[in-house]
Amino acid sequence: MDNYVMANIHSTAVIGNNVKMDDSIEIEKEVQVSDDCIFGKKVFIGKKSIIGNKVTLGDGCVIEKKSTVGNNCILSNNTVIEKKCMVGNNVKMGEHCVIEKKVKIEDDCIFGDKVVVEGGAVIGNVVKIGDDVVLEKDTVVLDGADIPTGIVLSAGHTFPDGTTSKAKYFKSKK
Predict the structure, then answer these.
(1) Which of 12, 52, 76, 103 is 20 to 30 A from 86 in CA distance terms?
(2) How far apart are CA 7 and CA 141, in angstroms?
(3) Is the model's pLDDT at 77 over the cut of 50?
(4) Taxonomically, which superkingdom (predicted)?
(5) Any idea what the Cα angle at residue 89 is, between residues 13 and 110, rounded to 5°?
(6) Residue 48 falls in which region: left (phi positive, over 0), alpha (psi -120 to 50) or beta
(7) Higher confidence at residue 171 or residue 44?
């Protein structure tokens, strides 16, 4: 429990060893933070969330209640993980991403800046998502997919599904 002030950390939170943060952080009740994490300024972690080992949260990151962030993740500045999300291990997210409630992200994924993943989506292992992408509600992205910059993936689809036509998945931003 190094380098932070207890003023904004609930008494029931469990903080691992060698965690670096400043006094602008807020950690709610029953949060578990593992070892060797680095948190930027004005980070918020909601109640009953779990943060894995060696996680970096940039300035202004928000992890809402009952969410899990796996080991070795980097969430850049002003990224928001809404309630009841699961982020796997070795996930890297760019700045200003929004992951809406009840999203599941598997391991080894890379997100660009300003990615929005709407509620209920599932993202497989080793997925790469470009900047300014929107994955609409209940989308499923299969292992190894590469979604280019600026795409909106239509609600409720599985991508890719073995077909050669991508037109049914993508639509332009309005």
Answers:
(1) 12
(2) 41
(3) yes
(4) Archaea
(5) 120
(6) left
(7) 44
Tell me if the pTM is above 0.85: yes
Which of 64, 50, 103 lies closest to 115 in space, CA to CA? Answer: 103
* pLDDT for position 46: 98
Which band of pLDDT confidence, cut at 50, 70 and 90, is reported for residue 159? confident
Closest residue by Cα to residue 116 from 104, 129, 102: 129
Q: What is the rounded CA–CA span in Å between residue 43 and residue 24? A: 7
Burial class (CB in 10 A: 0-12, 13-18, 19+), 128: middle
pLDDT reported for residue 171: 56
Burial class of residue 120 in the structure, from the number of CB atoms within 10 Å of its CB (0-12 exposed, 13-18 middle, 19+ buried): middle
Own/partner contacts of 64-68, CB < 8 Å, gap of 24 or more, are: 64/101, 65/28
Beta bridge partners of 57: 39, 75
**Token digits of residue 27:** 């950690």
Q: Phi-psi category of 168—alpha, beta or left, where left has phi over 0 and alpha has psi -120 to 50?
A: alpha
What do you get for the CA distance between the two ends of the chain, in Å?
47
